[in-house]
Write a structure and sequence with these properties.
This protein has about 140 residues and is mainly beta. The protein is built from two helices and 19 strands. Helix content is about 10%, strand content about 35%. A hairpin with a 4-residue loop joins strand 18 and strand 19.
């Protein structure tokens, strides 16, 4: 599996583990850091770059989206699409079934609670939970 995964993604760091099934658009826009663990049934929509740092923990069912669409209905119906990069810092932990929206950066060692929907950047070293995701405290 590691050989096929290394062919699929843009970068697979040493010792990284990705459990099946991983679903993505292209694969080549995904960068996975060393010793990162991605658990079962994750979706990485990589229309733009998804950078996952070293020693990140991603729980089952996490979705990371880069694709976005216009809010204006007429423009959306025209088929216009865009994508914004997502960055997950070293040592972060994304709880099960959390959703990371386009353009979001999550800082190093930050923990995102299960089921959270992250719509805005999170700084390093915080615990953040909820929908929408909010900072609860420093770690």
């Amino acid at each position: 599996m590691t050989g096929l995964l290394a062919e699929l993604v843009g970068h697979l760091g040493e010792g990284a583990i990705v459990k099946p099934s991983l679903r993505c658009d292209y694969g080549t826009n995904i960068r996975i850091g060393a010793r990162t663990f991605i658990n079962y049934d994750c979706v990485l929509l990589d229309c733009n770059t998804i950078k996952i740092g070293a020693e990140v923990r991603i729980a089952p069912g996490v979705h990371i989206y880069t694709a976005t669409h216009p809010l204006d209905a007429a423009t959306r119906r025209s088929g216009l699409e865009s994508a914004l990069p997502v960055t997950i810092g070293d040592g972060a932990w994304l709880g099960g079934r959390s959703v990371i929206c386009p353009g979001v950066t999550i800082g190093e060692n930050t923990v995102v609670g299960a089921g959270s929907v992250v719509t805005r950047d999170l700084p390093a070293g915080v615990l953040a939970v909820g929908n929408p995701c909010r900072i609860v405290r420093d770690l």
